[in-house]
Structures are given as structure tokens and as C-alpha cells.
Amino acid sequence: MYDVGGSGDWLFTVAPIFIGIIFVIIFIVIIVNLFSGLSQWKKNEESPRLSLPAIVKIKRTNVTRNSHLHEHNNNVHSHGSSTTYFTTFEFKSGDRSEFRISGKEFGVLAEGDIGTLTFQGTRYIDFIRKN
Asked: At 65, is the pLDDT very low, low, confident or very high (cuts 50, 70, 90)?
């Protein structure tokens, strides 16, 4: 007879430990991101709301592509994407700040627009174009 128990026992010992370590790492990453987000939100809330003259300098997007496998009749892959919009504003002092903005705001703004930027910490609130 073969000794089945001796050669593969390490797998049943190591695999649960490995899976546990991965679970703990994922849990820690989620908690750190949660606290980081809450910390940034708190800093923004405590920051003064400023309205300053500014120029729209740079517009950029960040597109994240996703691929999903849907099991419907056949194994059909569907592809999706999400786009994040950013705009960099320059102040009279020459300092620049980049803000995440909505797609609607992104479409309305043009590089070179001059106006008044309202923000609170890292939070974009509004940009009113000067006529």
C-alpha cells in the first residue's frame, strides 16, 4: 500500500496559514484606505473655503479598464471602463493645484479659462469663468 498521508500533509498545513495571511493583508489595506480617506475628509472639512483667481492650465483623464467574465449562455467577456477627470489650476502666485472634478465640469472647462476657483483643502467646489 502507498503512504498517502506523508507526502501531501504540508499542503494542508501551509495553505490555511497562507490564506489567513492574505486575508489579514487585504483587511489591513482596506482599513488603512478607510482611515486615509476619513483623515483627508476631516482635513478638508477643517480647511477654510477659499475663492481665488485662477487659470485652467491642464486637463487630464485617467481611464481604468475592466474586463469581466459573464456566464450567460456562452462565456462572454464584457469590457468596461471608468474615467476619472482632473484639472490643474494656476494661481497668480504661480502655484498650481490639481483637483478631481466631475465629467460635466471637465466638459465645460477649457485650458486657458480665467476665473475664480473655489476649493476647500483638496476638494474642488466650483470654477466661475470670468467674462
From this structure: confident
Q: Quote the domain boundaries for residue 87.
A: 49-131
Same domain, 10 and 63: no
**pLDDT at res. 115:** 97
46 grid coordinates: 477643517
pLDDT tens-digit readout, 67-83: 665 555 556 566 788 99
